[in-house]
Amino acid sequence: MLDRSPRLCLFSAALFSVSMAGLPASAQDALPGVEPDTAIIAPADKQAPPDTEAGTEPEDDATSETGVTAKRGRITPFNGAALPENEIPALRRPGGEGKPADGKIAPSGGVNVLERMGVALPALPAEKPFEGKADDAYGAFQRGYYLTAMELALPRAQLGDASAQTLVAEIFAQGLGVPRKPKDAAFWYGQAAASGDPSAMFKYAILLMEGRDVPRDKARSEELMKKAADRGNASAQFNYAQLLVADQPGQAGLKAAMPYYEKSAVQGIADAQYALSQIYLNVDGIPDDKRARAREWLLRAAAAGVDTAQLDAGIWLVDGVGGSRNLEQGFGWMLRAANSGNVVAQNKLSHLYINAIGTRPNPVEAAKWYVLSRRAGLKDDDLEDFYLGIGEAQQKAAREAANRFRAVRG
User: Fold this and answer.
1) Cα(387)–Cα(216) distance, rounded to whole angstroms?
2) Backbone angles phi, psi at 315, to 5 degrees
3) 152 is a domain residue
4) Nearest-angstrom CA–CA distance, 48 and 58
5) Phi first, then psi: what are they for 146, rounded to 5°?
6) Is 169 a domain residue?
7) Is residue 233 one of the residues assigned to a domain?
8) For position 203, which CATH number holds?
9) At what angle do helices 294-303 and 307-319 cross, to 10 degrees?
10) How far, in Å, CA of 299 to CA of 71, rounded?
11) Which of the residue ranges 7-21, 33-47, 90-104 would you say has the lowest mean pLDDT?
């Protein structure tokens, strides 16, 4: 099978997240950060006086047009004190699942990035050993000898060999050693799909769904997607699950799709792993043994680079969702999601720095991530008060750090 990448899937995890409407709020629902009754930062009038050793600046004043001096709400988080366990603010909306871990939880004493990322993940299943006859055409293709692969595969494709037809289609689709010919690729994908090749079924189902280089045919597309999924194609399994969720909004569709998400997740499709974590945690009637694995699947998706999964992993580990709390690992995943450009993670990371949750307090880093999330349009009044209260020197340093971050990301 040529296509092993979930990024070629027709539907993305965004469709799955839309289908979760009406279920308990997920991490991404928590825009723009936190609710007032679970606010990360307490109002200024409930805070102790600033600790000057922590590097905070005197309170900033603002003068109105009438000449009356008004005081902006002041936030003073940098006193270095550990928050009592029952006062660690939640990153999710009220009603989140999970219980705090036993024992005192204190800010991190400082661990390196590898330790923060050191989440033990179950090993992926071993690949099945190849027991068939060696294929010279595919061997040439894998070594980059595309013209040789075409010369070997085309005669077999014309005689009805499904795997050779798929290979010819792939060479034409990508323009490897030959001019790119999408219509010829579509023809050979169709031939291979009719001959029973699961990879070609998946590719041709996408073409039929989109009406690209072939007439659009939704019914035929869904039929081929299911056949490819039932024959073990991981990307088809994920996409067919997405079709079931789209056709049956709500928990009924999620339950119908769950077996296909499970099969795709086991084969390493990160989007399916993320979807499975949300279903296991949020859908009613899930067996306890499966619900207990929700965090495991979330961490697999996070490790594969899905930034939404990394955001959720940070929230789950800080809040104790789906297992015990681990503040340092939660901070690490939130940092990873923020560095990938996830705006919600950037906002929440600022709160973690302010309250020294899983890390040491750092006003400049907190302000930097707030600046980045604010530029992206994510409003947060608590963070705005914090930013206005740290002083011009630290504000300037934060803006410069935010500019460097954007420059590096291009």
Assistant:
1) 53
2) -65, -45
3) yes
4) 14
5) -70, -40
6) yes
7) no
8) 1.25.40.10
9) 140
10) 44
11) 33-47
For the chain, the domain total comes to 1
Q: Phi and psi dihedrals of 113, rounded to 5?
A: -60, -40
The amino acid occupying position 180 is R
Please provide the DSSP assignment of 32-91 as one string.
TS--GGG-SS--GGGSPPP-GGGTPPPPPEEE-TTS-EEE-------S-PPPPGGGS--S
The DSSP annotation for 229-289 comes to: HHTT-HHHHHHHHHHHHHHSTTHHHHHHHHHHHHHHHHTT-HHHHHHHHHHHHHSTT--HH
Q: State which residues form the domain around 142.
A: 133-220
In which region does residue 375 sit, left (phi positive, over 0), alpha (psi from -120 to 50) or beta (all else)?
Answer: alpha
Cα 307 to Cα 129, 273, 338: the distances in Å are 33, 13, 8
- Report the length, in residues, of the chain: 410
In b/e form, how buried is each residue of 274-313, taking b as 16+ CB within 10 angstroms? bbbbbbbbbbeebeeebbebbbbbbbbbbbbebbbbbbbb
DSSP state of 126: P
d(CA 10, CA 240): 10
Q: Are 221 and 242 in contact (CB under 8 A)?
A: no
pLDDT digits (tens, 9 = 90+) for 149-190: 999 999 999 999 999 999 999 999 999 989 999 999 999 999
CB 269 within 8 A of CB 6: yes
Residue 88: the pLDDT is: 65
Residue recorded with tokens 């949020």: 282
Tell me how far apart the alpha carbons of residues 401 and 410 are, in angstroms, rounded to a whole number: 14
Of 87-96, 238-247, 256-265, 379-388, the one with minimum mean pLDDT is: 87-96
CA distance between the termini of the chain: 35
- Dihedral of the alpha carbons of 109, 112, 114, 116, in degrees to the nearest 10: 30
Q: Is residue 39 part of a domain?
A: no
pLDDT value for 135: 78
**Of 11, 16, 5, 15, which is closest to residue 233 (Cα–Cα)?**
5
- Phi, psi at 210, each rounded to 5°: -85, -15
C-alpha–C-alpha distance, residues 370 and 128, integer Å: 47
